[in-house]
Amino acid sequence: MASSIEYTNGIQPSDKWEMILTRKAYGEMLVELGKKNENIVVLDADLAESTYTKFFRAEFPERFVECGIAEQDMMNTAAGLSTFGLIPFLSSYAIFLTGRAWDQARNTVDYSKMNVKIAAAHGGISVGQDGCSHQSMEDLSNMLSLVNMTVLVPADYWETRKMMEWIPTHEGPLYFRLGREKVPTVTSESTPFKPYHTLEAVGGGDGVFIATGLMLSRAVHAAELLAKEGIFSRVLHVPMLKPMNDEEILQAVKETGAVVTIEEHSIYGGLGSLVARLLLSNDVHVPTRIIGIPDIYLMSGKPEELLVKAGLTAENGAAKMKEALALRK
Amino acid sequence: MPTLNLSVEELREKARAIRHDVLVAIHTAKSGHPGGPLSAADYLTALWMNYLNCDPKNPFWPERDRFVLSNGHCSMLLYTLMSHRGLFSRGYLLTFRTVDSRLQGHPSKTSLPGVEVSSGSLGQGLSVAHGMALGARIRGTPERTVFCNCGDGELQEGNIWEAIMHAGHRKTDNLVVSADWNNAQIDGYVENVKNIAPLPEKFRDFGWRTIEADGHDMDDIVRAWNEAVAGTPSRGKGCGQPTAILFKTVMMHGCPTYENIPGWHGRPPKEDEVMHMLNELNYNYNTVDEARAAMGGFQEYDGYGDEDGK
To answer: Has this prediction a pTM greater than 0.90?
Structure first.
């Protein structure tokens, strides 16, 4: 029986978190990668200032392709570039890339197995005051159903940097989701990013939180709240939703006997759906709660206010875990 | 890599053989789109036999030109052109649209070496082709020319105009687009369904060099391709503009009884119809089996086998 909360893999307690942009990490890393690898090319659709591809544009203008406000054209231009052995990173907002350009992502990029890296800023509802038209709670389900697509959701600044180092070594279509707002640095410079693996963030045996992206911070915070009551829940971060490491998730659930998933995405077709399918089809029947954006459109508002409206809070996470643990056999 | 460099007379005869194979294969599959292939057969035969720089034994040869079939439903024409250029045997065309064949209903890059990108969802190929042309430029090899064929009905897609604007903006002169201007689409004549006219003016206004040609007059077709490639870096000096050739064509050309009827966009000919069509092309068989035998009968795939090649 644990007596205090056990942070693992360099995860920081919430009182040490700093607020930094993930898209800034993306922009910085593009430049670093561009220096090392002349095959890296970057595309944007009139959002270079916002997606931070402006750093790359300033450094390597000959390898930067501004597509104007034309996301469908950008997706397929990237596909064409990739056929010459280039590694295109394209950027816009998640809702436009996976909405407007979905047909291009499916029928050209994914079906042809093109080596295109889709970097989506402004994933989730924490986009905030721009309102619903610019929020994305559907992008993960839109991408997860694509056969060849690898899907990544970094938790914060440090993890984004580490993912970016790995991404050019990956061959094939890849989607990764960045946020708009500054997000807490739950991970640290020493936290590893292991492709094809989950990451244990907090040790414990009283149920497991399974989180992805920004919601790792809420899960860790929820575990901290529970620890004050003597409940020690494990926290598992899933930075790679596809392909997902089924074995590690099954093992964590079997060892802890209850599960709460939490994601900044619609409850239809995201992490919760993936985990529920996995558990049921492996006959792992444990108390399960799925926290995600319920079937509603959000609105303008401060990001934190919107997360509260959607129930994406540490307090809700802790409450749901208690419900699940009460049902645990 | 030399092209076949056929004479105008040989190109005419080759286009006739290609129409033959397209019709027999679509009839055999009892499924497919004959209208567009017969419309574009003459000018794409000229491109594939005499202009497209490729290695039939290695479709991934890095120095090749690229061809993108944006109107993917004309897949049977692409496959037949590939076969007649020497990528695989004609008999394999008879597996079109059957389970496990590389000859998918619409072209699939991962199924058939030599297909540069999967297509079928209309309006996408031109952006991809333009990306390829930019890729050649970034690589420092603008002499690689990228050819792209579009249907005229397809020009109703918004993504097409994004690409046209983009290529015009970047003056991508190693990109050559051919448009099959047959004025026919599924729901009727293009001018009635949703008019795309004035087409040459639209391309010109977006910064393109525009060439018009009779898509069934082989002399005029050769003139148009010569003029088009003369403005690409592959022939020494780029003209500083992307090029569009607008080929005036007739759907189902070569089979007069069936010409210019939009209904032939996507309907396979029945046995009596295909026999009549072949007869109008001056092929006189007693049975379709004889036509299939003329293609070598059903054959296994004998082309390049690397499915994940670059």
So the answer is: yes
